[in-house]
Amino acid sequence: MDNFIFQNPTKIIFGKNTESSVGKEVSSYSKKILLHYGGGSIKKSGLYDKVVASLKEANIEFIELPGVKPNPRLSLVREGIQICRDNGIDFVLAVGGGSVIDSAKAIAIGVPYNGDVWDFYTDKADATEALPVGTILTIPAAGSESSTGSVITNEDGWYKKPYNSALIYPKFSILNPELAYTLPRYQISCGAADILAHLMERYFTNSKNVEFTDRLIESTMKTIINNVPKVLKNQEDYDAWAEVMWAGAIAHNNLLNTGRVGDWGSHNIEHELSGIYDVAHGAGLAVVFPAWMKYLYKHDMNRFVQFAVRVWNVEQEFFSPEETALQGIKKLEEFFVSIDMPITLKGLGIEDDRYEEMANKATDNDASPLGNFVKLNSKDIVNILKLAQ
Ligand code: NZQ
Ligand code: ZN
Question: Cellular component GO terms, alphabetically (predicted)?
């Protein structure tokens, strides 16, 4: 187990009707906030009215900035920064999914910074200050509700880049599983694929003697695998949603990578797909992850055997180690198919004409290879994309 420091400061407020406490939570930080949300799902579901009522009850003034798109755009972040500066706003409340939360985090680091916020996403600067952010989560998926991450798409060149800083852990996140009842089925499945991907990125590690976190990751994966089919069958199954929502937050709140180094190659390859083709992040991961596994399972066959046996119940005695490893990958693909996720680039609507461009963009022309479990250069990435074809 590697040395580590673990400190996740996000206060989680979990359960039915918890969104009605938002005004009270915000009032510890601010009297004037930016209310940031997406394309209108929160109005249709009635959540918007509840949030506004709670803010008014706590005498919190707010200016709204709706319109966050999935794969959130830099231009709206810049608009948000300007609104905060012009109006003396000192808190950003995100109501929505990972895209809204990531956009809110970007605004939060952009407001006190003298340069352009994109500097943070291109390694030109590191944030030293941020406005506090709070969230009400409406989709279990990205884990941004208690993560250090924000992923933003720059429309100028369609670069999708992550930035991580402890400064952007949300101060609080309200997680009411009932808020997920209105999700379109496709988004439920994309969310499940993303949560599994966050777990697998951490699982495939070269760090030794990490049994405790291995087993935590395995049980979190099993929780997703058991409960996502339940919510797809009955979208108002509170108990199953509660499992998925809490597992989704834990999958990405840094607890499960304590003492170990995660990989993150698949995520970075996927960011190229979302950046250029604007596909949903989770769907892109359902395509990339199995191909990544097929490309490099021989790097540590035992780990892939363990994945197959412990997570997918593959019965080891019937197969050779290699067959067992491959069975695990097949089971993962079958799970994605069973929840209507694509597992090929064609299924995502992506042709084979820009693989090299994506591989070069992802590695900065081979200056920064991707991943930690196995380092990937642009040629490897092209090969993985071909396997995903
Ligand atoms: O915009 P609205 O109208 O709200 O609709 C959204 C959007 O169309 C809809 N939706 C969300 N909650 C709903 C709902 N519709 C009905 N009922 C509800 N309760 O779902 C659509 C997708 O929303 P989005 O926020 O894009 O989904 P998700 O949470 O999957 O976020 C994806 C983004 O997060 C980034 C991804 O790259 C992607 O840009 N990630 C962020 C991470 C982080 N900050 O730590 C880590 C992740 O690996 C990921 O990269
Ligand atoms: Zn993700």
Answer: cytosol
